[in-house]
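Ticket #4471: structure output looks truncated?

Reporter: J.K.
Steps to reproduce: submitted the chain below (110 residues) through the standard prediction queue, then opened the result file.
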Amino acid sequence: MILDNVVFANITDGAVTYKDSLTPVLTTISPRFGSVTGGTPVTFTGTNFDDSAENVRIEIDGVSCFVASATYTSVTCITDSITDRKTGLSEPSLYFYIAQKGKVNNTKGD
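Returned output as attached by the reporter:
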């Protein structure tokens, strides 16, 4: 797969080989917990992010998180209130997307 003249993956005989060095990878999130009323700065660290906050979209538990700053190794967003949107307990979720790169890998490989 080629995007903006950068090869992200090669497809040969039906097999796909990705270039890990180009894939955004999340390594840590701090803090791990915050208030349901919002306003908590959350910092995501990793590799191959984007240095433009406008290119990053983050949702925590289905609620948009305002991206305040971004570098190639760190993104900080400010949480929004979930008190008006969610009731009861739900499975936690994270959506972390970078334009031109796709979803950020937030799972550990074997």
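Triage note (M.O.): checked the attachment and the full token line is present. The radius of gyration is 16 Å.
Status: closed, working as intended.
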